[in-house]
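Protocol step 4 of 6.
Sequence for tRNA-uridine aminocarboxypropyltransferase (Oceanisphaera pacifica) entered exactly as in the expression construct, tag removed. Do not edit the line below.
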Amino acid sequence: MARTYCSHCQLPNLSCLCAHVVEQTCPVPVLIYQHPLEAKHAKSTVPLLRLALPDIQVDVGEVFTSPPLLSQGDWWLLYPDAQALDIDKPVDKQAAHLTQANIGGLIILDGTWRKTRLLLHLNPWLRQLPCLSFSQAPPGAYHIRKGPGGQALSTLESLSHVLDRLSPTFSPTPLRKLLSVRVKQFVAYTD
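Step 5 output, structure tokens:
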């Protein structure tokens, strides 16, 4: 018998996440450049982001053109860099830094660390963008996948932390709960 899939979340009906999705509006435009191998990975968190934040844009590939100009602010690359603005600076400094930063939209590279470095190499214009990073995100809950040193966060966790810092009206809780449900599904499947 063929497996049936949910028409909305595209997962098998037994794994449908629709009941756990709480849609939100992104406080800033978000553009995710996803490496093709990551797009095929069953444990990618970008499909979860697409469900919960339907106004994000996802482009899959290795070479991209620079995005269109924003009506307000500039595009910022969410990526660790020595010159990156750390959104987790002390509260008294944070507001001034973020106000001066003129963050109009976020570009996120999705893939393994090796693949995101490749995307940077193949798209040198990305290095011209100001970078945004963080230093005090909550501990990662995406235990089914590991990054370097076991401390890396998923794309969903990184973006939810940044959006929470950028906008007082954004709540990361629905995204974290959705991720938790998905992790439990994978753990149950492997047990």
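Step 6, annotate. The first helix runs from residue 36 to 39.
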